[in-house]
Specification:
Strand order of the largest sheet: 3-2-1-4-5-6-7
Radius of gyration: 29 Å
Number of strands: 15
Number of helices: 8
Helix content: 10-25%
Shape: globular
Strand content: 15-25%
Mean pLDDT: 79
Structural class: alpha/beta
Distance between the termini: 115 Å
Low-confidence stretches: 223-233
Order of helices and strands: EHEHEHEHEHEEEHEHEEEHEEE
Length: 372
């Protein structure tokens, strides 16, 4: 059996896809697989490490706001469908499976348009955006919840695929992780990428645990600065910056760690314990200048917006204090990181409209122009 499978973005999509692969291998050991994912998300590292043939496409999700980046995303989406068609036809699978994430959309669409059988799995109780789009391109929708029903699509209740390897796992000795056998252990785990909201709540809750407990928090790769704020006892954290090729992919400089010393664990779940020391690197990105103090002109702003693929929103204010088309205010704070697709709002100077200074004359008064 030959299977193309696609899932990406988070462990919530990737690991069910891997569980599906394992089960197919169990039933049909000679099966062949091709995994199609993104070129920049966690699946690009996880899948090749497992020896599964991998093909990456450059796709990204759509912003809910109308930005320049959406046009770029749509262009990449269309290119992704074309690339997937070629790879799928070359591999010639018996079925193409999508297990979630926006990368699955061009894969399933390409497969259906090329005449291959398709199957989509939904891990949540409500259809995700990609799977909603794919309803008319899938032959079968597998659901994790028995109550989920979708009109005009064959639905099969399967539950959420999970790895069965956990059944054979032996328990670890707490000493291997520097933990005390005499204390109760509280393990707090969020999703594969962590949760900034939960981390912020825990920051204020940790002090409520007394000395009888040890708390281990798996923060996820994206939230190490917040983890530092959790004030875990004895953890020494040093923040440094490192240059990156595409800074626009990092939506929040504070929440995205690109590397650490010592290095991240391969399973993406790096843990910090008491007395550990760690250096965390955030992306070094260009920042907004002080356009007001530097008296930028509209022409300079337009060049700046074009260079960084920003959206410009300009308004005007009348003033005599400066020349026309000089920046009076900007919505992006000086020193904020510049990210592609964001909107820059500025207020520009405009000369006040000239008023009519003519003084009306009284016809009863003598005119200066009259002759004697």
């Amino acid at each position: 059996m030959k299977v193309v499978i696609s899932a990406g973005g988070t462990g919530g999509h990737i690991y069910p896809a891997l569980a599906i692969i394992d089960k197919i291998k169990e039933k049909e050991p000679n099966s062949e697989f091709l995994y199609i994912g993104t070129t920049n998300r966690m699946e690009k590292d996880i899948i090749p490490e497992k020896g599964i043939p991998y093909f990456g496409i450059n796709v990204s999700g759509l912003s809910r706001k109308l930005t320049f980046k959406n046009f770029k995303s749509i262009a990449n989406f269309i290119k992704g469908i074309s690339k997937c068609k070629k790879e799928i036809k070359k591999f010639n699978p018996d079925i193409v499976i999508g297990a979630g994430g926006y990368v699955t959309a061009p894969v399933i669409i390409a497969a259906k348009k090329s005449g291959y059988k398709t199957l989509v799995h939904e891990q949540n109780s409500i259809l995700g955006l990609s799977n909603k789009i794919l309803l008319k391109y899938t032959d079968t929708l597998c659901t994790s919840f028995e109550t989920m029903k979708v009109d005009n699509v064959k639905c099969v209740y399967t539950g959420n695929p999970a790895s069965e390897s956990i059944i054979s796992k032996k328990p670890y000795d707490k000493k291997e992780f520097g933990l005390s056998k005499s204390k109760k252990l509280v393990l707090i785990v969020m999703g594969s990428l962590g949760s900034s909201t939960v981390n912020e709540v825990l920051k204020d809750s940790l002090t409520k645990f007394d000395s009888k407990y040890e708390v281990v928090i798996v923060t996820g790769k994206n939230y190490y600065e917040i983890k530092a704020k959790l004030e875990l006892k004895g953890i020494k954290v040093e923040m440094k910056t490192k240059s990156v090729e595409n800074a626009s992919e990092y939506k929040d400089k504070k929440d995205n760690i690109i590397s650490q010393e010592p290095a991240f664990n391969k399973d993406e779940e790096t843990k910090l314990y008491a007395n550990d020391s760690v250096i965390l690197y955030i992306p070094e990105v260009d920042v907004y200048p002080d356009m007001v103090a530097e008296k930028w002109t509209l022409s300079q702003v337009e060049d700046f917006v074009k260079e960084y693929n920003l959206t410009l929103d300009k308004s005007y204010k009348e003033t005599d204090e400066v020349e026309e088309d000089i920046v009076l205010s900007q919505n992006r704070a000086v020193g904020d990181p510049i990210y592609e697709g964001y909107t820059l709002k500025i207020t520009l100077s405009k000369k006040p409209e000239k008023k009519d200074d003519k003084t009306p004359t009284d016809p009863l008064l003598p005119s200066d122009e009259k002759t004697n």
